[in-house]
């Protein structure tokens, strides 16, 4: 059978257009992460007046309320946290913000589970929409070729598990003040047990851990060169989650020892005794603070910054 080249090209073009259109619909109508676009259209514009920047994963955007820092310290704060953001991406987004902003302090969320991950291409579209072309190209280089092509054609939403979409979409999320995602849902004891992802969890270092640690070091080194004080924070997990982790103290020591050598402050709220967090009051699920828990940690950290005179 003779192949008609022209018809093949037309058919391929139509097929790509259909896939792209379906993916766009999936991302815009079903994805629970659409609120990120409302939080900051462009990093440089959103952060250019900021004195304090908050960086990291969903633990960051659900754990630190800029309004509290602004009120207590008389400053301008912006929360740049995004879902599943590994330190590799945090570094590039930090450097993007530095093109127009000149913060005195940066808080970096450090979540041990994220350290074991590679760059997740599912979230790349969320990240690249808010950065310059130069930074976008650097981010894409962190992906294998097959994943770069998926991002280019926006074929990402269909790879997600539909039940995860529905579960996340049902949560009452609100794009709060300056990047903070406000969730007032309180986890029940039943949900903490049923949805707990830490049963028999053991942390082990791997290639991705060392790569992510390398990029945390880049954030530290870049901050020091710019005269920025950097603080690392591990937001708390419910006690019911921490108790299931077989070697949490080893995890804490691994992170703390490294950051101590780099000469930066580290606050691990799974180890600190105060403030006290209550599983059924301060968490939305098994690994994220809700609005009320975020208020506690934001009050605590703003007082620490004030006590250490970081804005003097």
Mind telling me which CATH architecture this is? Answer: 3-Layer(aba) Sandwich
Name of the CATH first level? Alpha Beta
Helix and strand content put the structural class at alpha/beta
Strand neighbour order, sheet with most strands:
2-1-3-6-7
The CATH homologous superfamily is named SGNH hydrolase
- CATH fold-level label: Rossmann fold
Tally the beta strands: 7
Ranges where pLDDT stays below 50 over 5 or more residues in a row are 26-34, 156-172
Mean pLDDT: 83
Write down the oligomeric state. single chain
From N to C, what is the helix and strand string?
A: HHHEHHEHEHHHHHEEHHEHHEHH
**Spatial shape:** globular
Strand content: 5-15%
Distance between the termini: 79 Å
Total number of distinct structural domains: 1
Profile the largest sheet: 5 strands, parallel
Number of helices: 17
In which range does the helix fraction lie?
40-55%
Q: What Rg, in angstroms, do the CA atoms define?
A: 20 Å
Protein name: SGNH hydrolase-type esterase domain-containing protein
InterPro entries: SGNH_hydro_sf
Transmembrane segments: 9-26
Keywords: Membrane, Transmembrane, Transmembrane helix
């Amino acid at each position: 059978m003779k192949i008609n080249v022209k018809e093949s090209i037309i058919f391929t073009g139509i097929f790509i257009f259909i896939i792209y259109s379906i993916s766009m619909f999936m991302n815009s109508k079903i994805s629970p992460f659409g609120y990120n676009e409302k939080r900051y259209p462009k990093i440089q514009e959103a952060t250019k007046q900021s004195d304090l920047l908050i960086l990291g994963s969903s633990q960051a955007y659900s754990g630190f309320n800029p309004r509290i820092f602004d009120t207590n310290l008389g400053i301008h704060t912006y929360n740049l946290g995004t879902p599943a953001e590994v330190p590799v991406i945090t570094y590039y987004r930090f450097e993007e913000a530095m093109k127009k902003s000149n913060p005195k302090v940066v808080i970096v969320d450090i979540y041990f589970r994220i350290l074991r991950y590679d760059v997740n291409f599912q979230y790349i579209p969320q990240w690249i929409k808010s950065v310059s072309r130069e930074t976008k190209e650097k981010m894409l280089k962190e992906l294998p070729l097959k994943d770069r092509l998926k991002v280019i054609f926006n074929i990402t939403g269909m790879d997600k598990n539909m039940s995860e979409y529905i579960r996340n979409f049902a949560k009452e999320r609100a794009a709060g003040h300056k990047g903070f995602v406000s969730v007032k849902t309180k986890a029940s004891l039943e949900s903490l047990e049923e949805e707990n992802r830490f049963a028999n969890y053991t942390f082990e270092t791997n290639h991705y851990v060392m790569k992510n640690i390398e990029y945390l070091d880049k954030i530290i080194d870049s901050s020091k060169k710019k005269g920025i004080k950097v603080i690392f924070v591990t937001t708390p997990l419910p006690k019911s989650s921490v108790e299931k982790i077989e070697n949490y103290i080893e995890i804490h020591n691994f992170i703390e020892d490294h950051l101590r050598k780099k000469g930066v402050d580290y606050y691990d709220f799974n180890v600190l005794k105060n403030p006290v967090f209550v599983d059924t009051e301060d968490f939305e699920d098994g690994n994220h603070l809700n609005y009320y828990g975020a208020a506690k940690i934001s009050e605590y950290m703003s007082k620490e910054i004030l006590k250490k005179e970081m804005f003097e």
